[in-house]
Amino acid sequence: MNTGSADIAEYDAIAAVVQHYIDGARAGSGKTMKKAFRDEAWIMGAMADASFIAPIQELFDRTDKRGPAPELKAHIAAIDIANTAATIRLELDQWAGRRFTDFFTLIKADGKWLIANKVFHLHGT
Fold this sequence. Notes:
Elements: H1 5-27, H2 30-34, E1 37-47, E2 50-55, H3 57-66, E3 73-82, E4 85-95, E5 98-109, E6 112-122
Parallel strand pairs: 1-6
Antiparallel strand pairs: 1-2, 3-4, 4-5, 5-6
């Protein structure tokens, strides 16, 4: 990523979107998390040797059901931006006792960044 002020502003805007996801996970609030995603987003990953593929609403519902995770630790490991497309790698630890690596694809439309899809790895499975 270039270090120009426009690039830094885009980086900050993307990080702010992901913060909705993190805040929603900590609060156990799918409603808070939903602010980060496009309505038509999907979630994909593997859990216990089985594929998990669902519309993003499934994540929100599971987050509401699981409840708060105040001990959650989150770290944005990488953000890569190409004009109106971006990717993020997010490391999460202690989300209901589990560790995840999340990969997000984002798109900027109408001047606003939103997550288009989430792919995850659940560590220890």
